[in-house]
């Protein structure tokens, strides 16, 4: 499993410096938040996208995925019933899928809780959101990209809070590129089953395409409030390994303690340490 870093953790470093730091820390690649690339990432030209990809590859890194899709340009809203906002959101999503393809990403994560909330007309808003997701997922499928719906805790968003809800919407939409992803912070707060049980189930069903590592308190993996709490990643990583998970592990803290670079460096050491321990346990058992 590759371990990648969500690049907004290293802002305000320029992209080249982010890449150099991530490589030196031991990461295999980046998960890119498009808003870190430009005020309006949907307007990046083909030449600019190619140059970004070359700059990342020059440090021996890959772009694994994109996330925080609708943070930029300003004014996007997946659930808006306003025709103009809806049109701009649809076009932005399609262009961001093309950006992901241009950067070589194999996964798109659709989270962005602030831009996907339901209001008084929830039924109509849900239908609008589903139409946008279907269009973006079908474009992703044309590029061979998995388009993942992220379940987000109910304190941040009132739309798609659990993996079961995301799974049901994926089945309802029916676009082949739609997949599930598991975010430790959100799942630890919302799911009844453990991370390990969820991972084993959805890996076995071939539905899990991506995993984001963090803690329920929004800090980095291993920085949770309780060592054996519901956000402990050792059982999750064991389940992923035993289930043959072939996707990436993206380090995505929200609260950078003590700061972004230090948090990123600590996280990669912690995750690799857990994986090394699991590998040693497997060897000892044999």
From TrEMBL:
Under Gene3D superfamilies, the record lists:
Divalent-metal-dependent TIM barrel enzymes (3.20.20.150)
Q: Provide this UniProt record's keywords sorted from A to Z.
A: Isomerase
Quote any Pfam family the record assigns.
AP_endonuc_2
Q: Where is the Xylose isomerase-like TIM barrel domain?
A: 20-261
Q: Name one GO molecular function term.
A: isomerase activity
Q: Which InterPro entries match?
A: IolE/XylAMocC-like, Xyl_isomerase-like_sf, Xyl_isomerase-like_TIM-brl
- Reading the lineage from the top rank, the first entry is Bacteria
PANTHER family per record: HYDROXYPYRUVATE ISOMERASE, XYLOSE ISOMERASE-LIKE TIM BARREL DOMAIN-CONTAINING PROTEIN
The identity of this protein, by name, is Sugar phosphate isomerase/epimerase family protein
Q: What is the organism of origin for this protein? A: Chelativorans intermedius
């Amino acid at each position: 499993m590759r371990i990648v870093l969500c690049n907004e953790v290293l802002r305000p470093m320029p992209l080249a410096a982010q890449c150099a730091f991530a490589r030196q820390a031991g990461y295999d690649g980046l998960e890119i938040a498009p808003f870190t690339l430009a005020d309006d990432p949907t307007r990046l030209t083909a030449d600019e996208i190619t140059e970004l990809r070359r700059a990342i590859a020059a440090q021996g890194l890959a772009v694994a995925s994109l996330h925080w899709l609708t943070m930029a340009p300003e004014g996007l809203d997946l659930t808006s019933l306003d025709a103009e906002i809806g049109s701009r959101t649809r076009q932005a999503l399609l262009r961001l899928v093309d950006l992901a393809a241009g950067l070589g990403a194999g996964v798109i994560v659709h989270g962005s809780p602030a831009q996907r909330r339901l209001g008084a007309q929830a039924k109509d808003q849900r239908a609008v959101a589903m139409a946008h997701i279907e269009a973006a997922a079908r474009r992703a499928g044309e590029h061979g990209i998995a388009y993942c719906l992220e379940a987000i805790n109910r304190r941040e968003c009132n739309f798609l809070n659990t993996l079961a809800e995301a799974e049901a919407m994926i089945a309802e939409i029916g676009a082949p590129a739609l997949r599930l992803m598991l975010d430790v912070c959100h799942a630890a707060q919302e799911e009844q089953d453990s991370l390990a049980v969820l991972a084993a189930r959805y890996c076995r069903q071939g539905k899990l395409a991506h995993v984001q590592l963090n803690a329920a308190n929004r800090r980095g993996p291993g920085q949770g409030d309780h060592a054996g709490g519901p956000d402990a990643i050792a059982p999750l990583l064991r389940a992923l390994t035993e289930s043959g998970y072939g996707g990436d592990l993206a380090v995505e803290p929200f609260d950078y303690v003590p700061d972004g670079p230090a948090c990123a460096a600590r996280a990669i050491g912690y995750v690799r340490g857990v994986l090394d321990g699991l590998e040693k346990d497997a060897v000892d058992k044999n």
